[in-house]
Design brief:
- The protein is 60% helix and 13% strand.
- The chain contains 2 helices and 5 strands, in the order H-E-E-E-H-E-E.
- The protein is rod-shaped and about 150 Å long.
């Protein structure tokens, strides 16, 4: 009977040792998994920090682009208003140098200002001149009004007539 008790004690000791080894190995695996998950969590935390930093940079860049877009829209509106103001300033009445229309050549806009009282008019007259170049247009107006003390002649500018 003692031998049965000894055999039972040895069997329980063997089962206890096997259980301890199995549970110890399982505990080590779980510890290794936990360590790996903590490392992953640290990596993901770093990714989150990086993503929040990039998001802040992106929002700052976006705000800058919105400011630039607003400035550009303001510039566009000011340029459009300047164009409409310039269109309003462009004279609609022109004096012509030629009685017969010349073939070819673009139209040029030349302003002539009367400087002294001996001039036949006061103020500014605008001429539409057909010529090959701006120099030719200015030369033709200079031939018509030769006195540099009586008249001031502006440089020739291409004339674009408004469409109606």
């Amino acid at each position: 009977m003692n031998s049965i008790w000894v055999l039972g004690a040895v069997a329980s000791l063997v089962i206890g040792l096997l259980g301890e080894r199995i549970l110890g190995a399982r505990a080590r695996r779980q510890t290794e998994k936990l360590t790996a998950m903590k490392e992953r969590l640290d990596v993901y935390a770093n990714y989150a920090k990086l993503a929040s930093l990039r998001r802040a940079e992106t929002e700052e860049t976006l705000a800058g682009l919105h400011r630039e877009a607003a400035e550009m829209e303001g510039d566009i509106q000011s340029l459009q208003s300047a164009v409409t103001d310039d269109a309003a300033l462009t004279p609609m009445e022109f004096y012509c140098v030629d009685r017969v229309a010349r073939p070819g050549g673009p139209l040029w806009y030349v302003a002539v200002e009367a400087l002294d009282a001996s001039a036949p008019w006061t103020g500014i007259r605008t001429y539409a001149v057909a010529a090959e170049s701006a120099e030719d247009a200015r030369k033709r107006i200079t031939e018509r009004h030769p006195s540099p003390t009586s008249f001031a002649i502006s440089p020739a500018v291409p004339l674009v007539l408004p469409e109606r």
